[in-house]
Amino acid sequence: MPIEVITFDLDNTLWDVEPALLRAEDAQRDWLLQHRPGTIDNYDHEGLWEFKKQVWKRHPELLHNVSQMRLVTLRELQLAAGFTEEEAETGAEHAFAAFLTERHKVQLYEEALEILEQLAGRYTLGALTNGNADIYKTDAAEYFDFAFLAEDIGAAKPAPDMFQAALAHAGTTPDCIVHVGDNPDHDIKGAQGVGMYTVWMNGRNHSWPGGRRADAEIRNLNELPAAVEALAG
Ligand SMILES: [Mg+2]
Fold it and tell me: According to the UniProt entry, where is the signal peptide (predicted)?
């Protein structure tokens, strides 16, 4: 069967996520220091990490929902610092908004737009992310027909839910879809689990961790059109 649909992971597949995340964390921190003094001032990096881990332990049901988990953490940090429920609630919303604004300012890989435009002329393109990035807030928005976030679907990759949502939305069979992603477990194993083709975006030249390999491996998005073409043959 010819490939009809390409689904993409976003972070570290279409852009490097780390610069945006660092800026986003800074923005959230600045907001708290200014508007909720005492909330994080006395934590060092490790202390804050410990606090977060305790919140995760108390809320395992939110592990697939990075946005909700961040809001809960922000709220609990303020409550622990003595702010009221109401202050903690609005503070969490504002601090998270400061975070998201920077989180969405991602810089697509140099070659990404040209490749996506080329692929969009021939295939249906979708986005599947475990994070809270929004492809529709980037310059690549016009090339995407659909996008699913783990927090909307209710389960994160490698669970089959997001891949099945893509299949249902595209109205096609797994042998007509290829999923492209950087994470061997979330992206490759997850997509293999529902029978899709897979392309491992290995831009950082990692060695394969073991298990069934992807159908193709690329170092740069420039290699993707030929890799997808070869799958169909
Ligand atoms: Mg990724």
Answer: none
Q: How much distance in Å is there from the Cα of 12 to the middle of ligand 1?
A: 5
| 181 CA distance to ligand 1 middle (Å) | 6
Over residues 83-111, the pLDDT tens digits come to: 999 999 999 999 999 999 999 999 999 99
How far apart are the CA of 85 and the centre of ligand 1, in A? 35
pTM exceeding the 0.85 threshold for the entire prediction: yes
Q: What CATH number belongs to 5-15+108-232? A: 3.40.50.1000
CA angle 204, 20, 131 (to 5 degrees): 80
Cα–Cα distance measured from residue 183 to residue 128, given in angstroms and rounded to the nearest whole number:
12
pLDDT tens for each residue of 145-186: 999 999 999 999 999 999 999 999 999 999 999 999 999 999
C-alpha 46 – ligand 1 centre gap (Å): 25
Contact between 32 and 80 (Cβ < 8 Å): no
